[in-house]
Write a structure and sequence with these properties.
The chain has about 800 residues and is an alpha+beta fold. The chain is built from 35 helices and nine strands. The radius of gyration is 44 Å and the shape is elongated. The relative contact order is 0.03. InterPro entries: ARM-like, ARM-type_fold, P4R3-like_central_dom, PH-like_dom_sf, PP4R3-like.
Length: about 800
């Protein structure tokens, strides 16, 4: 016999930390009774004596030690031969693998041979061929029966290792023999005697006495019956009998997984082709005379049948569900879901989930058709909603599953649109007419007062699920949900839940309102303002106090969104009705920012032409980039002083410059009517403030239609700091404003820049100044500055 066990050299580390050569031997693994576990064994090549015996610790990570340098027992230098090359040489040199005789006294040799062949793919292949060609499995099973009769525990332990190794050979031809009717129970018997366990398992006893096969509908095809038995037993071997595979062994069982997979495909196909079987199945399911136990078995069978279908290829799965649909699976489920048996309803829900995940359009079409014949109370989709509401599980596991199915059914993303009809329009109209009142019933019943009437954990969980679905509808349904919310006053009811003692429910209510506000729909906004629906939100905010938590952040984020997005109607509503409650909140600037927005809106309303003026000025505002600034600066420094004194424009004129009359008319009219009130609100050009009692006189002059200067003559109003009555004097109302030179000149390339500086435009102007390279302190020398101002 060709010895295929792994040949190794053994070294031990002595006290001087030097390696001593113990000799050459063959390594194997096996169960050692003395060590109470699987151990590594190395026997000498010369006489078979034991060189090494070490128990394998399953919690220790082992790795292959690489050979370095040379063999210390050899005087000459030798090249290191890679182990994989040595294996390939051995495999090529030996044409086949000779198995030892299948006898009791050779079981240990066979177990070592199998264990040593598994690490090498080529040796594994040769071992599989040898076992297959010599009919070795049947011989081993005969030895198993002998060992079991003789109670030969050592032989049974070797047979366990051998049979486990044959599974890891991963060969379909061997599985066909092992899983045949005459062999499979003996194979399971071999796997009962795990040497790592003190007592053998009783798998065969469970399969023959405890687990019983029931034909809920008689199966006339013997091949189908045999295939079902085989699949159940092989699945049991995979799940219960075989030990959990290690990382290295996991891929070695891929053929076993495939064997089970294709068996299930065959079973589904054979059942699908048996029309009599399916007809009887659905007839008994819907028959009122069927007793509860029988119906429970039928539903469980149908559930397992649908689970098997998940292994089918897409085209086969399509045919499978079409067959079930033609057989009337949805009407049958409707009958089953109306029963009182909780287990039967649970199985029916699982079946319904398979149908919804596969083809939601098929389910939608069915429920719309049945609405023409049945009352709302017995519609399939309303039964699903009722089961979600009435889930008795404290954690609402079933309700969560059903809510996911409803969400799939009302999701417009998976709805079809054809030339003749739109599924989205038809189904949503049906859903809001026949089903939405059932879904929202718990919400409406629990929010009749200022606080939730029932505030226990399970009720709060259910309401949170309903709110999650309603929020999804707000995001995806627009028209239908808008009408429903406004007509049924749903938002007001939802905001009652902000007073719940369960924070997660209050946050769900806030999220619902936040989604509505996020749509920026004026229909929603008018509804919110008309019913003062910010009031419960502000109450929740104030009741939360100074606590920095999710409630606080969620409410502030809602108001911040209104401010940032400048939702004018809501901004005015909030400030006019709730400002006194919010004005002391200063740890964020959200509410003060809302007040500023509101004041800006009022200012525009008081001055109708303010917006038009701002648009005129901004339309002519020219934002220069860095390259333009550099070019203009270079042109300015290179220009002759005489040119500058002559007032010639350095910056090229704009082709789009308006005429003086066109530009002066709206500005003059506006400036004549404007009454200056406050220093911060009435800054002209360089933030120069005028008293509210003054009537400023402005002079507009143009130079070559390119250079615009806006200056106030000294005779009309002195702008020098410290002069009597001037804004910069200590006694004037505008003494806090910044001073400016008596004459201010603005030069533009494409038009006017900031002729009038409004207080609500400060941020824009500061940004303009930074981008235009302007600063409060003029960096130019006095000579240049005076010439520019002249």
């Amino acid at each position: 016999m060709t010895d295929t066990r792994r040949r190794v050299k053994v070294y031990t580390l002595n006290e001087d930390r030097q390696w001593d050569d113990r000799g050459t031997g063959h390594v194997s693994s096996g169960y050692v009774e003395r060590l109470k576990g699987t151990s590594l064994l190395v026997r000498a090549e010369s006489d078979g004596s034991l060189l090494l015996e070490s128990k394998i610790n399953p919690n220790t990570a082992y790795q292959k030690q690489q050979v370095q340098g040379k063999d210390p027992s050899v005087d000459i230098t030798q090249d290191v031969v890679d182990e994989s090359e040595e294996e390939r040489f051995d495999d090529m040199s030996s044409p086949g693998l000779e198995l030892p005789p299948c006898e009791l006294n050779r079981l240990e040799d066979l177990a070592e041979l199998v264990a040593s062949s598994l690490p090498s793919p080529l040796r594994r292949e040769k071992l599989a061929l040898a076992v297959e060609n010599e009919g070795y499995i049947r011989k081993l099973l005969e030895l198993f029966r002998v060992c079991e009769d003789l109670e030969n525990r050592e032989g049974l332990h070797h047979l366990y290792e051998i049979m486990k190794g044959i599974f890891l050979l991963n060969r379909t031809a061997l599985f066909e023999v092992m899983f045949s009717d005459e062999c499979i129970m003996d194979v399971i018997g071999c796997l009962e005697f795990d040497p790592a366990l003190p007592q053998p398992r009783r798998h065969r006893e469970f399969l023959t006495k405890t687990a019983r096969f029931k034909e809920v509908i008689p199966i006339s095809d013997p091949e189908l019956r045999q295939k079902i038995h085989q699949t159940y037993r092989v699945q049991y071997i995979q799940d219960m009998v075989l030990p959990t595979p290690s990382v290295f062994e996991e891929n070695m069982l891929s053929t076993l997984h495939s064997f089970i997979f294709f068996n299930k495909v065959e079973i589904v196909g054979m059942l699908q082709d048996d029309e009599k079987f399916l007809t009887d199945l659905f007839a008994q399911l819907t028959d009122e005379a069927t007793d509860d136990d029988k119906r429970h078995e039928l539903v469980n069978f149908l559930k397992e049948f649908c689970a098997f279908s998940q292994t089918l290829q897409p085209q086969n799965r399509d045919a499978f569900f079409k067959t079930l649909s033609n057989m009337g699976i949805l009407p049958a489920l409707e009958v089953i879901l109306g029963m009182d048996d909780v287990q039967v309803r649970g199985a029916a829900t699982d079946i319904f989930s398979y149908l919804v995940e596969y083809n939601p359009s098929m389910v939608r079409e069915f429920v719309m058709q049945e609405s023409q014949q049945n009352d709302d109370d017995i519609l399939l989709i309303n039964l699903i909603i009722e089961h979600m509401i009435c889930d008795t599980d404290p954690e609402l596991g079933g309700a969560v599953q059903l809510m996911g199915l409803l969400r799939t059914l009302v999701d417009p993303e998976n709805m079809l649109a054809t030339a003749n009809k739109t599924e989205k329009t038809e189904f949503l109209s049906f859903f809001y007419k026949h089903c939405m009142h059932v879904l929202s019933a718990p919400l409406l019943a629990n929010t009749t007062e200022e606080k939730p009437s029932k505030d226990d954990f399970q009720t709060s969980q259910l309401l949170a699920l309903i709110l999650e679905l309603l929020t999804f509808c707000v995001e995806h349904h627009t028209y239908h949900i808008k009408n429903y919310i406004i007509n049924k006053d749903i938002l007001r009811r939802v905001l009652v839940l902000t007073a719940s003692r369960h924070a997660f429910l209050a946050l769900c209510a806030l999220r619902f309102m936040r989604r509505i506000i996020g749509l920026k729909d004026e229909f929603y906004n008018r509804y919110i303002m008309r019913n003062f629906l910010f009031e419960p939100v502000i109450k929740a905010f104030l009741n939360n106090g100074s606590r920095y938590n999710l409630m606080n952040s969620a409410i502030i984020e809602m108001f911040e969104y209104v401010r940032v997005e400048d939702v004018k109607s809501l901004t005015a509503h909030i400030i006019e009705n709730y400002w006194k409650a919010l004005e002391d909140v200063d740890y964020v600037q959200t509410f003060k920012g809302l007040k500023l927005r509101y004041e800006q809106q009022r200012e525009r309303q008081d001055n109708p032409k303010l917006d038009s003026m701002r648009s005129i000025l901004r339309n002519h505002r020219f934002r220069r980039d860095a390259r333009t600034l550099e070019d203009e600066e270079e042109m300015w420094f290179n220009a002759d002083e005489d040119d500058l004194e002559d007032g010639e424009a350095v910056v090229p004129p704009s082709d789009k410059m308006k005429s003086e009359e066109d530009l002066m008319e709206p500005i003059s009219k506006f400036m004549e009517r404007k009454k200056l009130k406050d220093s911060e609100e009435k800054e002209v050009l360089g933030k120069t403030s005028l008293s509210g009692r003054q009537n400023p006189s402005f002079k507009l002059s143009f130079s070559g239609s390119t250079k615009t200067s806006l200056s106030s003559p000294p005779s009309s109003a002195s702008l020098n700091p410290g002069s009597p009555g001037s804004p910069g004097s200590p006694g004037s109302p505008g003494s806090g404003a910044r001073s400016s030179p008596s004459t201010t000149t603005v030069t533009t390339k494409g038009g006017l820049v900031g002729l009038v500086d409004y207080p609500d435009d400060d941020d824009d102007e500061e940004e303009e100044e930074e981008e235009d390279g302007e600063s409060k302190e003029d960096p130019l020398p006095p000579s240049k500055k005076s010439k520019l101002s002249s």
